[in-house]
Structures are given as structure tokens and as C-alpha cells.
Write a structure and sequence with these properties.
about 550 residues, alpha/beta, Beta-Lactamase, Rossmann fold, 21 strands, elongated
Length: about 550
């Protein structure tokens, strides 16, 4: 029943008793201990409801109440009260009842569903503003009107009120209202002391809201499926990036760009110093593209092959094209990379003569073998890389300007390792793990050596770092790699490492000091909780910092 359901919303102590004065329901405003099914006198020993009276005083210890009785249905009454002393109860009884009436009116008025209350004859007694939102008719229009008159005027299609009066029970039906909205109408009877239906409380719910929620839920499920697919793609991306470190913001942006351009066929020009990982980025672009399923990734170093042989390697040759040529001829790199990717490493070393042929291949999508008479169509995506300044080479006449612009469609510049120091410690961990697995060892890096690695400028970039790690692992007899184990050429530079009084970027100095402290703590304490206690910070902060610098707790549990 509607009013029974509203007991918890009544802002005063309220309870519902059956004919034997047993508790059917109550709200938390009654502070005395009470339980459903118990007799009211178990809570209020002096409870005495006089026949014909609508007020009763009740007390439990220091708590005193005055309850007002309101019949709900046969042998079922609603008692709404207020805390008071015996003296103030008499003085404030009238004001409390007025306030209670205002509160009940407010509860009805602020209900999201429309509430429509009639007497047993169908005369409208009270309604709320929600009915205006649902039906489009002001609530004042309904007051005093009979539901039969509303049906005749087409405002209602049928009345639940007469059904409730006739059947003396709650009745529900679904119908379209005056505005054509689908509504759920539930009428509940309110009985007098004689067991007759005195009033009918009708709850009107706009089902269009529920239908809209259902539509939104369906859309959310569709988005959920979309997000699941995107997560699967991210998982696949992580598996493809195994062995690639992108901790620094600059590298994350580079690989995000690479992922976006992977599915187009435009030429990519990767710029950067020797050893920064240009070939790794080229392979990643290939692995992310649809060409990885159709063709191969073919790499050729334009600076490692003599110019007179480079043409035959790139474009191939026909049988008998020159002395010493294979009798069956040979396919060039362009043909081998058909439907795939051709990676031209060190493209700045390409001779001018071959630059012309490469330009034609890019423009016409066709190549011609040495000694051949007919061009061959090829479907190849070009990814070129160089550590040289091609613009300067164009100005000096060492590189064709037209070829430069054909290659420079999607340029990506990889910064040197010294400009992305956030990647250094994760790279050390990656290379150390690989070398340990390769040689069956378990070498570790001392924090002081970490400091050197972090502060060193790495002119050879990632390649130099990888080679040095392998050299230290192989040549150092101890399991702990220290700064004193560095080769002689590095011993001279380790003293120039960042000292506390050096003038360096503040962020870099803070991160270096932070990583030093965390590494020392990770070596000396068993878990992240002990480290957090010693460093006087929270355990989640320690976990986040250890992840940032890729540091593991060596004596006990790991930070994951």
C-alpha cells in the first residue's frame, strides 16, 4: 500500500500496528528498541489506546512520544508521533499536528510519481504537481471533479478508483494518458474504522521515463561492448610492444602517433640519432598495420651496401644482366616487400643515381629490374630512416629535393636517450632481464651504478646502453654490478655524474634523488609497507613511485 511504503519517508516517529496492536512496520525515528511482530507494549509498557481516541502518549525510559492514530485498512492503523515531555505534549500538540500535516503534504507534493487521491465516490480530494508533468493538465483542474466526468471529457480512458472501491484491494493497470504517454496506474484503498473504503490513493508513473532508461541501458551495453573491444585492442597492443619502453611522455606520444598512422599507406620518415630505436618503431608501425597480414617487413641498410650493388638489391635484375649475375635472375627488395613494408634504413646514404629510381618507384608504384625492359607494378609502403639532416643535404646538393618531399610525408623524430631519461631505468631492467636469461645469470644493478646510468649522456643511445649492460653482465664476476665495474672509458665520465650541488633542471634532480632513496630502501626492506613507514609516506605512494622508476623490492614481496 502506498502510505505503508511511505513510512520510512515520514520525518517523525511512525509505526503501523495491526488490530492486536502488534508492530507491522516502523521507521528509524522511533529511538526506543522495537522489532516487527512484537506487541507495542513490549516497547512502550504504559501504552493505552482509549476507545475512540486518536491520540495516545507513550514512553520508554527517558523517551516520551505522542502518537496520532490514522486508520489505514481493516485492523491496521498508522501512528505518527513526536518526541515530547508530558507537559510540552499538551502544549505543542496542535502545532505538531499542523507541522505533520505540512510534512505529509510536502511528501506527496515532492513525489516524482503523480499522486491522485479521491474519496469513495470518485471525487478528487488531493493531487500533486507531478500529475501536471505527466498529463499536461494543471493539478488544480482535478480538484473537486469526479473521475467519471474526467473520463467523459477524454482526460482519463478508464478509472482505477471504481475498481479499487469495488474490489477493496490494490489494482494496477497500464493505459495511455491525455497526452498519449504510456502510464502505469496503481490504486490503493484507505479504509475507515468500519472497514469501508474511505479514500483511494492512486500512484501514476510515466512509463516513457522507464522506456527511455531502457533505451539508455541498451546504449550503455553497446558502449560496454565497444570498450571491451578497445581493451582487447590495447591488450594486443601491449603484447606487440613487448620489449619496447615508452615510459617518457615524448615516447608515448610517438607511439600513439605511430598507431594512428599505421593503417594508412603514406610514406613515413623516421629521424633520430644512431641507436635511438628507429628500426623498432618501423617494425611497430608494420605490426599495427593490415600489411602485416598480407606482406613481409623487408629491411635494407642503404649505407651498408656498396652503391654498385645497392641497385640490384633494391630493384633486382634479369638473367644475364651483368657478369656474375644469377642465371635465373633475382627479385629485389621492392618485389620481396610487395603487399608489405620496405624499411630503408640510413636513406641519407643513398647515391644520387639511385635516388632517381627510388623517386620513380614512389611516384609510379612500379620498378624495373636491371637489364629488364618492362616495368613491374609493386604495392609497397615505404618507411625510411636516417640520422642525417636531409634538409641540409638538399641545400648541399647531396639529396634530391623532390625525393625529400616524397619521403617527408609523415615525419617522426625520436629524441636521444639523454632527452628522455624516464626511459633509462626501465630500459636497464629490460636489457638486464634479457641478458640474464640469455646467459643463465642473475645479475643486479647497484643503486650507485643506476645513478651513473641515469646521469650519463649516452651518445650511442639505446644501442650503447644495451651493449654496456651485456658487457657488464658477462665480464663482472660478482652478482651485483657496481660503478667500479664500468669499463675504463666510462670511469672517466662517472665522476661527472650529477652531484647534489650540481646545477641541473629541478625536476631531473628531484627524480634522481627520489630514485636513489627508493632503490636503497628496496634493497634493505622486505615490502612496500616497511618502506612507506621508513620514508614516512603512504604505501600507495610507494607503490606508484616504484612503478614509475621500475624498481623492485629485492628482499621480499614485489610491488605488484
Amino acid at each position: 500500500m502506498i502510505l505503508i511504503d511511505l513510512v520510512d519517508q515520514i520525518p517523525f516517529p511512525a509505526m503501523i500496528l495491526d488490530g492486536e496492536e502488534r508492530v507491522l512496520s516502523f521507521n528509524e525515528k522511533i529511538k526506543a528498541g522495537m522489532s516487527r511482530g512484537s506487541h507495542v507494549k513490549e516497547t512502550f509498557p504504559l501504552w493505552d489506546m482509549k476507545a475512540g481516541s486518536k491520540l495516545v502518549s507513550a514512553e520508554n525510559g527517558d523517551m516520551r512520544y505522542v502518537f496520532m492514530k490514522s486508520p489505514l485498512e481493516e485492523e491496521c492503523d498508522l501512528f505518527i508521533g513526536t518526541e515530547t515531555s508530558e507537559i510540552s505534549a499538551l502544549k505543542n500538540e496542535n502545532e505538531d499536528l499542523k507541522k505533520l500535516t505540512r510534512e505529509l503534504d510536502a511528501i506527496i507534493e515532492n513525489s516524482y510519481d503523480g499522486i491522485y487521491i479521491t474519496d469513495h465516490k470518485g471525487i478528487t480530494w488531493k493531487t500533486n504537481s507531478a500529475i501536471e508533468r505527466i498529463t499536461g493538465i494543471p493539478k488544480e483542474y482535478y480538484i473537486g471533479k469526479n473521475v467519471d466526468a474526467l473520463i467523459k471529457r477524454g482526460i482519463l480512458k478508464s478509472s482505477v478508483t471504481h475498481r479499487v472501491v469495488k474490489q477493496k484491494r490494490t489494482v494496477s493497470l497500464v493505459q495511455e494518458n491525455y497526452e498519449g504517454k504510456e502510464t502505469l496506474i496503481t490504486g490503493a484503498p484507505v479504509f475507515n474504522d468500519n472497514g469501508e473504503v474511505e479514500k483511494v490513493v492512486t500512484n501514476i508513473r510515466d512509463l516513457s521515463d522507464l522506456n527511455e532508461l531502457q533505451t539508455k541501458l541498451s546504449r550503455m551495453n553497446q558502449l560496454n561492448d565497444k570498450y571491451k573491444k578497445e581493451l582487447d585492442l590495447l591488450k594486443n597492443r601491449n603484447s606487440k610492444m613487448d620489449g619496447v619502453v615508452v615510459n617518457s611522455e615524448s615516447m608515448r606520444m610517438i607511439y600513439d602517433t605511430a598507431e594512428r598512422i599505421a593503417h594508412v599507406n603514406a610514406t613515413v620518415l623516421i629521424l633520430g640519432e644512431t641507436g635511438v630505436g628507429k628500426d623498432i618503431l618501423a617494425k611497430y608501425i608494420y605490426s599495427e598495420s593490415a600489411r602485416s597480414k598480407e606482406g613481409d617487413f623487408i629491411k635494407i641498410n642503404c649505407g651498408a651496401i656498396p652503391g654498385d650493388l645497392l641497385e640490384s638489391e633494391l630493384f633486382g635484375y634479369e638473367p644475364g644482366a651483368f657478369t656474375g649475375a644469377n642465371r635465373q635472375g633475382k627479385a629485389g627488395m621492392f618485389e620481396l616487400a610487395d603487399k608489405g613494408v620496405l624499411f630503408l634504413d640510413e636513406v641519407g646514404e643513398l647515391p644520387l643515381m639511385l635516388q632517381v629510381k627510388l623517386l620513380r618507384a614512389l611516384q609510379e608504384n612500379e620498378i624495373q629490374r636491371i637489364g629488364g625492359t618492362k616495368p613491374r607494378k609493386v604495392d609497397v609502403r615505404i618507411i625510411a630512416a636516417t640520422n642525417r639532416d636531409l634538409k641540409e643535404m638538399v641545400r648541399d646538393g647531396d639529396f634530391r629535393e623532390d625525393l625529400y618531399y616524397r619521403l617527408n610525408v609523415l615525419p617522426i623524430s625520436i629524441p636521444s636517450l639523454k632527452d628522455r631519461r624516464d626511459d633509462i631505468l626501465p630500459l636497464i631492467d629490460l636489457f638486464l632481464k634479457k641478458v640474464n636469461n640469455r646467459y643463465g645469470m642473475d645479475k643486479r644493478v647497484d643503486p650507485n651504478l643506476h645513478d651513473f646510468f641515469f646521469s650519463y649522456d649516452w651518445p650511442g643511445n639505446i644501442r650503447e646502453l644495451s651493449n654496456l649492460i651485456e658487457r657488464l653482465v658477462v665480464t663482472t664476476p660478482e652478482d651485483l654490478l657496481k660503478a667500479e665495474h664500468l669499463p675504463p672509458e666510462y670511469q672517466e665520465t662517472k665522476h661527472t655524474a650529477i652531484a647534489p650541488n650540481s646545477v641541473v633542471p629541478l625536476k631531473e634532480a628531484v627524480e634522481l634523488a627520489e630514485s636513489r632513496v627508493l632503490e636503497l630502501a628496496a634493497l634493505n626492506y622486505k615490502n612496500t609497507y616497511e618502506i612507506a613507514e621508513v620514508l614516512e609516506t603512504s604505501q600507495p605512494t610507494i607503490v606508484r613511485k616504484l612503478k614509475k622508476y621500475n624498481i623492485h623490492v629485492s628482499r621480499g614481496e614485489e610491488w605488484l
